[in-house]
User: Which sequence fits this backbone?
């Protein structure tokens, strides 16, 4: 009996839609690439490399542009005998300190047999090793620190660009390329870091629908068989992408989700309907992940707002959510947070797109205040925070939504009426 059979009628190369795929060329980023290329030019001239700071939201091509240009730079530098170029690429996701980065850099410069432990040394000695190893390598060395916004202290961002001026390096010509997904990261840098790291700043703006269309068409040509995509599919993915965040990754994910749905259903073409359903599925996944990542108090605040919303009380001010939140916190055996911290949780929920916010004016003399309401479907939210519902108890308002067939159905609390 055959269990597995190839089902490649839709995809020519599905991997072209995956995150790790590097496109042959970038579309619609000419201006940024030109600036970036000019900033890298000193390397080819055998000069001290610039320090470069790249910033923009996620999915706007920062990593792709860097890999693309550095691959070309390496190829083209190979034509000059007097240029010896090394590129060290480090993604800082999961790294939180300059110490961790410095030890990773040391190890990437060393052979397998000479690796150092990533804990236990004083930071100053790790830097000593780093300078020595960089000088041993010699030539031009570009250090790329991608997603540097994960790093909590800026020591390495100061030390690396200044190493030569400080007399720590004699031979190696080191340039630092810092990439950040977080706008505020740049503003929060200390002035001394800003002046050295941000020698050349390049901003990558969000993509509009037209940009996204071009990117999706390029990717779709590689990924799908001819004639599989209905005409409306790419424009629709691009329109959603532009409306959401101008994020190319999100749009490519959507195209892949639509393709997967079509493949599962064994249809011959991908249609608008697949895109719409794919979008709902991805959205649900994102929200679920967002809720899972919240703290216990985040869940309690959300649960309070959810029940009030179901009772028709929303939109509500933070102080009107508070009594119920406080009660829920007590039921969960937790000390309620102070009002200000509770409000921070509401803001976080709004940022995740789970809660909607409206700014209101208090009239001529008053300031503004914010009102909150729920922006997501109830079952999805409940299913993502069942643990909290179990400790607090099932509020009357959500009882109809709690899966009646669930084995571990928590007891319904009767005396919720007064909260
Ligand atoms: P960032 O690093 O800014 O978060 P990426 O460089 O990882 O974004 O881009 C996200 C996805 O979109 C990657 O798959 C990348 O190949 C693709 N992409 C982004 N911009 C372009 C572009 N201009 N042309 C082609 N593909 C692109
Ligand atoms: Mg990136």
Assistant:
């Amino acid at each position: 009996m055959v269990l597995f059979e190839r089902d490649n009628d839709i995809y020519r190369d599905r991997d072209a839609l995956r995150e790790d795929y590097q496109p042959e060329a970038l579309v619609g980023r000419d201006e940024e690439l030109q600036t970036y290329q000019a900033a890298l030019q000193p390397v080819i001239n055998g000069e001290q490399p610039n320090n470069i700071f790249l910033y923009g939201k996620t999915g706007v091509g920062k990593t792709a542009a860097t890999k693309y240009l550095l691959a070309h730079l390496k190829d083209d530098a190979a034509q000059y005998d007097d240029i010896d170029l090394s590129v060290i690429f480090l993604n800082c996701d999961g790294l939180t300190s300059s110490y961790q980065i410095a030890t990773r850099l040391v190890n990437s410069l060393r052979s397998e047999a000479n690796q150092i432990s990533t804990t236990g040394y004083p930071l100053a000695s790790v830097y000593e090793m780093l300078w020595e190893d960089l000088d041993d390598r010699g030539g031009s060395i570009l250090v790329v620190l991608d997603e540097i916004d994960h790093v909590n202290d800026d020591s390495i961002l100061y030390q690396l660009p200044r190493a030569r001026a400080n007399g720590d390096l004699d031979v190696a010509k080191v340039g630092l390329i810092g990439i950040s997904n977080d706008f505020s990261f740049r503003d929060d840098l200390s002035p001394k870091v800003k002046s050295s790291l941000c020698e050349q700043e390049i901003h990558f703006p969000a993509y509009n629908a037209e940009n996204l269309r071009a990117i999706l068409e390029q990717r779709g040509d590689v990924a799908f068989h001819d004639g599989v995509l209905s005409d409306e599919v790419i424009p629709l993915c691009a329109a959603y992408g532009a409306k959401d965040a101008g994020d190319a990754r999100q749009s490519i994910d959507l195209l892949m989700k639509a393709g997967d749905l079509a493949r599962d259903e064994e249809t011959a073409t991908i249609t608008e309907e697949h895109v719409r359903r794919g979008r709902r599925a991805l959205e649900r996944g994102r929200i679920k992940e967002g809720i899972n990542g919240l703290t216990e108090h985040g869940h309690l605040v959300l649960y309070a707002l959810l029940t009030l919303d179901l009772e028709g009380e929303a939109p509500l001010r933070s102080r009107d959510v508070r009594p119920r939140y406080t009660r829920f916190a007590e039921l969960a055996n937790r000390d309620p947070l102070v009002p200000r911290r509770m409000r921070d949780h509401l803001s976080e929920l709004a940022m995740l797109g789970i809660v909607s916010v409206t700014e209101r004016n208090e009239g001529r003399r008053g300031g503004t205040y914010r009102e909150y309401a729920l922006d997501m479907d109830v079952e999805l939210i409940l299913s993502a925070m069942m643990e909290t519902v179990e400790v607090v108890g099932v509020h009357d308002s959500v009882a109809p939504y709690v899966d009646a067939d669930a084995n571990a159905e928590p007891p319904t609390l009767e005396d919720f009426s007064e909260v």
